[in-house]
Give the backbone structure.
Amino acid sequence: MLPLNRIHLNGLRAVETVARLGSLRAAAAELGVTIGAVSQQVSRTEAALGQHLFHRKADGMELTPKGAEIAPLLRGGFAQLAAAVARADPARGDLLTISVAPILASRWLIWQLPDFQVAHPGVKVRLDADTALVDPGSSDVDLCIRVGRGGYADVRAERLFPQRAVPVCTPGLAARIHTPADLAHVPIIREPRPMFGWEVWLAPLGLTPDILGDGPEFSDASLCLDAAISGAGVFLAFEVVAEHALARGALVALPPGMVETGLSYWLITAKDRSPSPAEQSFRRWLKARLATSGFAP
């Protein structure tokens, strides 16, 4: 008898889910069964294997050394099974699900997608606007576009291009700003939890954020960009999301121009499965479109 034949697949699935989520409750919610059922499946699997895979603790389930050894293998195996089932599902067809931050989706990607649909009419694109790093290997998401410093674990991450930032405002307001020091005399639009601060643009000029004037505050970068378009002040925007407004003249970039923030844009795909034809087509199209827009690695 093959070793796998004596282990129930549902038990292995319960072990993988608990290992990934860290608790019986979270695993039960994902699997759609009771906490007791998950606990029993894990215990039966441990008994069949002849060793414990988890330490039971009050605040959750902690992997034993052996559990930590096999958890990534189970995760990859179930990712492959999920991919196989998805590709065999006629209802899915060539559906491509892309997870992308809401502001990047609405300010850049949504304006580019018609070009992709013309080139690939058989691929149906579904955008999932989210900021959390979704694992394409254990979800219905095919790929993600994220901003960060890299070092993402258990996924395949391809650096697309560096993030750059520049202050933007309406042409009328820009006429009042002759040097960076003039930012002390115009409204500065602020975001409470920005991805980067004004120091990334001011420091190379020998200035600090202390020189900045007062101004309105909005809860996210998309609102801040709209406020800048309305003439409410100057906003330190990242280049890719301001591109459309800059191209049509609604906003202008203040000199001396763009600076790199130290972050980059990344294409995140599953580590343990081969990309589908739709994923491959989107990757090629995305890199070409970025190059056309001037966003190069």
In short: The first helix runs from residue 9 to 21. The domain at 163-262 is CATH 3.40.190.10 (D-Maltodextrin-Binding Protein; domain 2). The chain is about 40% helix and 20% strand.
